[in-house]
Amino acid sequence: MLKLYHTPLSPFCRKIRMLLKEKDLAFELVNENPWERRREFFALNPAGEVPVLVDGRRTIAHSTAICEYLEEAYPELGFLGESIEERAEIRRIIGWFDTKFNFEVTENILFEKVYKRLWSYGEPSSEALRAGKRNIAYHLDYIAYLTQDSQWLAGNRLSLADMTAAAHLSTLDYLGDVNWDAHPRAKEWYALIKSRPSFRNILMDRVMGLKPPAHYENPDF
Amino acid sequence: MLKLYHTPLSPFCRKIRMLLKEKDLAFELVNENPWERRREFFALNPAGEVPVLVDGRRTIAHSTAICEYLEEAYPELGFLGESIEERAEIRRIIGWFDTKFNFEVTENILFEKVYKRLWSYGEPSSEALRAGKRNIAYHLDYIAYLTQDSQWLAGNRLSLADMTAAAHLSTLDYLGDVNWDAHPRAKEWYALIKSRPSFRNILMDRVMGLKPPAHYENPDF
User: Fold this and answer.
1) What's the CATH number of domain B84-204, 1.20.1050.10, 3.30.750.24, 3.30.420.40, 3.90.1530.10?
2) Interface predicted TM-score of the whole assembly (ipTM), two decimals
3) Which pick of A1, A12, A188, B42 has the fewest CB atoms within 10 Å?
4) What is the pTM of this model?
């Protein structure tokens, strides 16, 4: 059976969890706190970071490598598109959220509020938090733009682009930092994600003594 | 003909330039300063970021999407590995440099020294610069570790893993921030990269009124 080392609030782990479920693959979830710097975990991944996937004798580290691996090894249910154009567009949107959104929003909010303390990197910067909250709005507008003529971000099929965007947004939503009501189209898209069985388990996690807002796991929010 | 929108000191653009040359593909290089926020460029890539590749009617944005696209569209000379295990390992190392090295080193040095000014983000932070320079050492040790039994980072063939690592290191080397002499094995590996014809053009660029150190483009440094 597949084994995924993860930490609950990491968007990069949440994406893989959702992908595994959507691909209908059984897997064991192993909680790993990378800030504890466990020696055995460094042996699996010298970067000391989650997610790490173990598939029999194979160990795959880094979320992009894991996604591509799962698509190659288990192609029956694919989420990276069928044509070369679709794949380029899906990977572009994945890049948007894992790089741009991550830099402009996730690092400014999740890193500052949660991980800085765990990694002993000092106090949250109020300047970073303000920037993160300011930046999130135009990303929600971009989701609205991408879904103006389609149900999902890269057309009419759920893809890894949606999973990536939802994984980032869900961690910020856990912290109460997404103003969905100001972005009705993005909210509609996210309601579809929340109603996927593959996303339910992720939303059930309660972690690190933090309580999410009341709407957090409700698909009718 | 392929057309690549780039900016000379971006490691994400340098990687694509090297890949295009190694794949023996002709391309036109278009200089784009993303901090000028050109409207026509946003029409090509709403993220407003380089690299962007135009291949006939197809536009591909984000370096990961471009690499995967080039490997799919032009598979004759491949740099992502042959077996599924090789691909997972090459993508893991790409992830290491594009995410971990980028966060721990490139953003702390290149972003602080060069891009912060261009994007009008304020003064460089001396704390970030110190962290970047401190962090670079263990990444060079990791290159030495990966190449202890092989010529290249992921075995005995040049791959996108090497191009990614070299792209990041070369921009820092341009700024004079790599202490090669303290890392002889990493230096040996980088000398191999510097002697590739695909890397020569990149090292010939002179940009933004900045002068690189004397050893910068010399393969015998």
Assistant:
1) 1.20.1050.10
2) 0.96
3) A1
4) 0.97
